[in-house]
Design the sequence.
């Protein structure tokens, strides 16, 4: 025992200070370099996610060399922890660090990246505290650690910094600031080593693409996943759920999948994963009945196992030391625990046709989940398990569907780096429309999807405003299991709600292609304006107030330009949601001519609009030359092999080009090449008129397209 | 290098899991046992504070054996961290974990003990996150670690716990709770070992006393420290400060010391520690002029060294890697840095008669202080330095005064365990009167002092209510450097303010004796009702609402009885502050007869009063048999050798006994035995009348008492 103790002491002593060393970089995929500091842990975000880089996608990115700042990035191991320092220059802004709800600009923030529910402030504790950021200077940094990282995103100044701020006398100098300039991002990794990735651009969008492709690219949802979804009250029976689906059909509102809340289980919190026989006497028949209605079934669950579950006894030795709501916590780092849980889900749900899950409470908060003192049989620490549990539940369930060659699209409350390709959308208990939009923007910086879901509303105005936003998001969900609200519950806006719900369906060819771009090229379908070329709110907005101390504090300057209430949806659309109570808002247009989505009229170029769209409209603008492929106002997404018509819209005056994606919409056969990209072109003819064309489908490739019509929104009228 | 890496890996591997072992306890002082888990770090809270247990004080506590729960406390080293588990039983409540502002009952809380400003919620981040708690069952636990500790104060349940909560179905069982019962406190120490102390009672008060005595006992302030203090606007000159003191004298308001804010320094934030020559041309003469007025000088500072300070160059190599407001951070774990700073203060302030400091910004917050990636030449980590910096600045300055055999009493923004005997009072930027009272209550559980200071007020009502509270606190401070408010600024309550200011002065013999009890016996002068025998709000209050699920959730029951707006001041007084806007309040009286402080009238026994005291009065109640020694309404505390008269009050019907403490009031000669305890007795005579007596002073002991008068508040009228 003394020998062991000696070694520990010796190791600690040796570990105390390592020289502040530059990092040895090696390129792992094109434009992405990995550096090793100290002795990184084997258990990491990427090792859990086990994702394979999408190498094909990199081939469509520019060739780049190691960014110059590589030499200035340092890593040190001290006090058993690793600290990383990445330089910043003046006027540089940084984005990312996970699914933040309040800010897009991260420079100056201090964050503790910790998987948790969102507690009302951007502290780094959230549902996907991804340790990745992208700089406006066109590079990115990713730290592959499953620990609670502390990030000083340009806060704190070294006394020996070449760019150190200068001391001022607070007694007499009005330019004194409580937060002096900082020229570095510092990251503290509480482990004796870390893997750091330096990701090249040249543009910030290229950085984001490389990061997503490194992590396997975005998910390609089944086509139905992009339709409309509703969640029913927790104690609904099979008949009530079927009635609900029928009512949507009768009322003319689209519905592709319906979510059952905890009451479908015989016991919940903790869970049995078994159907409640009083409400669902014949689950197989129920699921089949729903599928016959073209409405798929999604099941709520959390992973904590009830003593009444048939897998409890077998799971007990494979679970952590502490319970959650008195349920045991499967040690999902253990293959046997994963298999046991997956088999249960497959046998009793997926095998009978259930299409997806809503996996709840894998995020936090501390009062609910296992404490940091918990232990797991695999030896993975409570902290590491907390950071990766969201990844594990996605992996286990996604893999179950994959084994049946059927895609899923579900909901999960936690994710992290590496989860980029899992077909899951994040959600939470917060219900602030503005925060939801900021989260949607930030989701594009961290490789996750986010839904600004609609639950209840205090007014018809709020109901419609929220519906308008959710239509332009990864998952068009009415999550009214608690409020019981239906799309038509507010009669004075029921028609507008229907119009937007159907618009979601009409835009399905566009959404599906944009998700394909996420998958194949790493381009997030929903993302910040900051990734858009020519976006400069400073020059665009004469109305943006200027800070008086801009010259002194470049950080302040950057903050003054933060835009967190408008975003890009796919290649061409700029969405500017309206919030209840607003009658007008400002919209910052990037450089280039922009057109109104609804009318095709020109609205401006590199300027700030003040718009008053009325309650019927969410402001949406379209780039010059945009091609938006649409279809009919279907009530359900086309199923495998079902043809759909195209209405191809063109906006503005420029020639246009769009690559339309198509496959069977349901299976993983696209991974074997069973997909088609079709070139849609709009070109100006000699007669001055615009004309559209669509390329033929290659031999043996899927083709689900029926009738094609053209609609020139700005010209040819 | 490979050999080193091998050792590190080997050590980490071996360190992963240690058996969940019972702890080997050994008694370090009477009733206090120390246990070692893993390999504790040398740098700890107690090693920094370097306090000597007050052994004499233990002799006046009951003899006790090792508490039975000792066997059930376990410690484990896993993942390089130490986790401690201490059992809880039903209906047990726990108190402490530092200077919390919102709650007294800590059971069920999750806290991250981290020195910081108070950010509006009790998260464990505060000015004194002391890792000590006391149980209502009559034992205490102290973890001597200078790390950021995570505490689950009865949250989280082990699956193998003998007292594990039982799973319930949320779908159908209304008694389901999101926070099931937990039968343990867990503490995560992020280090491969920890020292844990188990402190016996038998009563909770005995536990608190033992904890304080282990840490050297409370401070004995100079007599003037218990007088009134005011802080002047930051750019006041020497003349203006003198005028301010003269104005207090002329208006008839007491004043013992006056605080100068940053403007006394030539540069501040960061600091030179040097007098500003334009405002203070002759500091020595200024301080002497003030002392001639019987008003002492206290100087604001923070420890961050300006490049313009004459000690900057010498301090540079002795400072941390990162700056605070562009000032270097002295590595106070290094003796040379301590000496350099101390010499500066001694030479330029203490040596010319300055009496104390207000040491600011040693707490937080993260945006201001050094980041956790900072390093210090001593090898002490940024985390450890953050947890102990408040201790270091107290130690350096206290020691400077001690070398001149003169006591100080000052203000500091951060402390921690071990700082119990430093003559400093904590304060902060929060300004919520209710929170301030709760902090005052909690200060008594964690060995620190706290002032509910008065700054500005929105109304004369608030001004008076705050003054009334601060009079019954460790430091009677008007901290109006920003608002410029004077005690007489609200004319309609100026007389009441004067009355209470003078009451503070009249009660000085009581306050001074109660602080002596803190020093010699470890009894906090200001403390929770929960330490008072016979305090039971449940039986006292018919009006306290009962939770409907008391049977299911003992934690809820405990919370329902939390009292956080009344406290004990010294041996006999129960103070129940009124907050602006209140016209009435409830007061819970412990068992025993209680009397009104102002009238001597009987008010009740073990019951809840509803009181409507009017604006002129803060409700204060006195125990039966209480003896309160008072003096004349002086404007300044008696100086060394100055006699003061006694008015000895007796309350109620019981015989009384009080031990009055006396010494020179200014030096450390009391540590050599130069002090006197005098027995004051009130006994019922054969004629039924009460009669008082005071013992003679022993030979060669100090005696500053002049005329003695008796006042029987309840009887003999």
Sequence:
């Amino acid at each position: 025992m003394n020998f062991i103790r000696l070694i520990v002491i010796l190791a600690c002593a040796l570990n105390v200070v390592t020289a502040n060393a530059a990092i040895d970089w090696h390129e792992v995929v094109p434009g992405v370099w990995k550096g090793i500091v100290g002795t990184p842990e084997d258990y990491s975000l990427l090792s859990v996610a086990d994702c394979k880089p999408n190498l094909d996608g990199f081939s469509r990115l520019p060739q780049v060399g190691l960014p110059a700042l590589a030499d200035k990035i340092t890593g040190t191991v001290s006090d058993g922890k690793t600290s990383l320092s990445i330089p910043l220059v003046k006027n540089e802004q940084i984005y990312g660090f996970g699914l933040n709800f309040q800010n897009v600009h991260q420079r100056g923030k201090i964050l503790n990246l910790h998987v948790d529910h969102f507690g009302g402030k951007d502290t780094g504790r959230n549902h996907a505290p991804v340790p990745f950021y992208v700089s406006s200077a066109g590079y990115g940094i990713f730290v592959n650690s499953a620990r609670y990282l502390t990030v000083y995103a340009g806060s704190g100044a070294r006394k020996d910094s070449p760019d150190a701020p200068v001391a001022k006398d607070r007694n007499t100098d009005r330019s004194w600031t409580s937060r002096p300039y900082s020229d570095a991002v510092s990251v503290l990794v509480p482990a004796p080593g870390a893997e750091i990735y330096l990701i090249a651009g040249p543009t910030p969008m290229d950085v984001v693409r490389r990061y997503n492709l490194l992590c396997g690219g975005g998910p390609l949802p089944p086509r139905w996943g992009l339709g409309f979804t509703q969640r029913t009250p927790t104690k609904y029976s099979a008949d009530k759920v079927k009635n609900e689906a029928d009512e949507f059909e009768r009322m003319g509102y689209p519905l592709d999948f319906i979510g059952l809340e905890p009451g479908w289980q015989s016991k919940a919190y903790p869970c049995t994963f078994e159907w409640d026989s009083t409400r669902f006497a014949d689950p197989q028949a129920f699921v089949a009945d729903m599928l016959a209605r073209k409405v798929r079934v999604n099941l709520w669950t959390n992973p904590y196992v009830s003593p009444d579950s048939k897998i409890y006894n077998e799971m007990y030795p494979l679970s952590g030391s502490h319970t959650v709501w008195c349920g045991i916590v499967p040690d999902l780092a253990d293959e046997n625990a994963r298999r046991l849980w997956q088999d249960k889900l497959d046998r009793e749900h997926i095998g009978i046709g259930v299409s997806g899950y809503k996996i709840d409470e894998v995020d936090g908060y501390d009062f609910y989940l296992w404490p940091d003192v918990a232990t797991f049989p695999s030896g993975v620490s409570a902290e590491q398990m907390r950071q990766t549990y969201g990844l594990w539940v996605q992996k286990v369930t996604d893999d179950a569907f994959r084994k049946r060659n059927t895609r899923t699209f579900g909901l999960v409350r936690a994710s992290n780096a590496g989860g980029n390709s899992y077909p899951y959308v994040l959600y939470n208990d917060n219900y602030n429309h503005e925060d939801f939009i900021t989260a949607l923007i930030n989701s594009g910086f961290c490789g996750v999807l986010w839904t600004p879901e609609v639950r209840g509303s205090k007014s018809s105005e709020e109901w419609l405003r929220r519906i308008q936003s959710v239509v332009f998001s990864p998952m068009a969900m009415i999550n009214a299991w608690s409020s019981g609200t239906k799309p038509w519950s507010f009669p004075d806006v029921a028609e507008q709600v229907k119009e937007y719900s159907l618009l979601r369906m009409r835009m399905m060819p566009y959404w599906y292609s944009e998700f394909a771009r996420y998958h194949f090229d790493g381009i997030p379908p929903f993302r910040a304006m900051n990734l858009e070329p020519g976006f400069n709110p400073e020059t665009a907005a004469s109305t943006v107030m200027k800070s008086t101390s801009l010259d002194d504090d470049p950080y302040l300057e950057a903050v003054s330009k933060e835009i967190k209430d408008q975003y890009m949806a796919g290649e061409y659309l700029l969405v500017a949601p309206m919030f209840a109570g607003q009658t007008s808002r400002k919209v910052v247009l990037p450089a280039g001519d922009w057109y109104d989505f609804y009318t095709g009229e020109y609205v401006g170029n590199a300027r700030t609009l003040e718009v008053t769209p009325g309650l019927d409209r969410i402001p949406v603008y379209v780039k010059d030359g945009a091609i938006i492929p649409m279809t009919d106002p279907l009530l359900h997404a086309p199923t495998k092999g079902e043809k759909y018509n195209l209405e191809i819209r063109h906006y503005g005056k420029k020639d246009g080009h769009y690559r339309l994606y198509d496959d069977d919409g349901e299976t993983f056969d696209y991974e074997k090449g069973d997909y088609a990209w079709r070139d849609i072109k709009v070109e100006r003819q000699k007669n001055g008129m615009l004309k559209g064309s669509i390329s033929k489908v290659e031999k043996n490739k899927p083709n689900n397209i029926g009738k094609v019509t053209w609609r020139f929104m700005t010209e040819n009228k």
